[in-house]
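HOLO CASE FILE
Compound: pyridoxal-5'-phosphate
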Amino acid sequence: MVETLRISSTRIKESRLASTDFSNIPFGKVFTDHMFMADYRAGEWKNLRIIPYGNMPTSPATPALHYGQSIFEGMKAYPSANGKEALVFRPLENWKRMNVSAERMCMPHIPEDLFMESLAALIDLDRGWIPTEEGSSLYIRPFMFSADEFIGIRPSLDFTFMIILSPVGPYYSTPVKVKIETHYTRAVEGGTGYAKAGGNYGGAIYPAKLAQDQGYHQLIWTDGKTHEYVEESGTMNLMFVIDNVLVTPGLSDSILAGITRKSVLELAQHWGMPVEERRISVIELVEALEQGRVQEAFGAGTAATIAHIELIGHEGKNYSLPPIDQRLFANKVLTELENIKRGKSPDPFEWIYRI
Ligand SMILES: *Cc1c(COP(=O)(O)O)cnc(C)c1O
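Model generated. Tokens follow.
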């Protein structure tokens, strides 16, 4: 970051803050007063601007709408204890991952200063929207899409990068029932599963809905080739404690490299817990479930941080897991991560970015 970028700013006339009920915010439906936008034209990011949040004109021919040329990120900001600062959890990791997604989808890189300074400027302007209610936070959604006016399929030339912010209430992570999916596929070797690319999520809604109709909350995805190895849980990374070892599927191009996953593994190692990142077969998992050796199972992701899994379904059979209050590791890591994110615990790994 050599020099400060020039970001123009147009303020909203009347803030919606006073008319927003923070004690009752539905997830993902309330947005702050402003948003950030930048245009990629002729090989350069231009026209960096903060403007009032609202609808925007888009060409009906934009490839983002037709071919899913769009990528996104998700992270959260929390209020500091004195309420004066916004604490953002590991935003540089999101910046790096956004560029991994961009590369895969044939989109331009976002320079570090563009990502970080636009984020800081927007959060600074809308900091009054960071909820202070217990358990609440400000969800940050950076995204980029092709903005060409062209319905041919080829690498696009024009792109739009945006950031919107959404205050979210406490995520009461009730334990989830999940089903091991052995027909539908989220991602496959050589595909786009490791990218946060729009189409991955659109395609996952239908199989997830089928599982919901059967009484499960979400799926455990298996590898797209053989369906013999577990990969992720819904839009979270998947973790188990089996025989006192923290086990999680190793990263591959069909698994999204979660920042929560990475943080959980780093904390576990720091605490001296044995950790294995490796392939986990459905057979191994079902056997361990039958023998009662799966002590804990959970999803790890920004939305819930840790989502305990209470039941795993496989081929019509349901396996119940130990009670949540016996999950020593998941509960400990959840508490510690929440405390670090909110500035209540020391931050030995320098994960927090203060605005
Ligand atoms: C975003 C995401 C995750 C979790 O990533 P975090 O950085 O921890 O929020 C896991 N799996 C998928 C498929 C995702 O899209």
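CASE NOTES: The mean pLDDT is 95. Residues 34 and 52 are 4 Å apart (CA to CA).
CLOSED: yes
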